[in-house]
Amino acid sequence: MFNRPHQPRDLFTEGYNSLQRSVLIFGAALITLAVLIFLYPALLGILFATLILMVGAMALIGGYRLYRFKKHIEKVEKEEEPFAATIKTEGPHYRHRSFTMIVR
After folding, report:
1. 35-55: pLDDT as tens digits
2. Distance between first and last Cα of the chain
3. Which residues contact residue 88 at a Cβ distance below 8 angstroms, ignoring those fewer than 6 apart?
4. What DSSP string describes 44-99?
C-alpha cells in the first residue's frame, strides 16, 4: 500500500555493495597512509606516539571507571537499607516498573 524507499530491495545485493565500498575506501586509506609515510618518515613516529597516547588515555579512563565502580560497590555494601530501581520499557505504552534489590 505504501512505498518504503528506505527498505532495500535485495538484502544480499545491498550488503555486498556496502562491503565492496567499505573495502575500497579502506584500501585507498591504507595506500594514502603508506604514501604519506614514504614522503614523511617522521609521520611514522607521530602515528606511533599517537597510538601510545590513545592506549594510555583509554587505560586511564578504564582505571578511573573501575575505581568509581569499586567505590559504588563499597557504598552499596555499607548501606543497611535496600535501594530501589525504576526501569522504563521501550514502546508507546511503556510502564514504570519498580523493584527492590537486596545486596548482602
Report:
1. 988 898 888 889 889 999 999
2. 57
3. 94, 95, 96
4. HHHHHHHHHHHHHHHHHHHHHHHHHHHHHHHHHHH-SS-EEEEEEPSSTT--EEEE
In angstroms, the CA 59 to CA 47 distance is: 18
Alpha carbon of residue 51 to chain centroid: 18
Which residue's entry shows cell 548501606?
Answer: 79
What is the reported pTM?
Answer: 0.48
Tell me the CA distances in angstroms from 55 to 50, 52, 62, 72, 75, one per residue in order. 9, 5, 10, 26, 30
> How far apart, in whole angstroms, are the C-alpha atoms of residue 43 and residue 28?
18
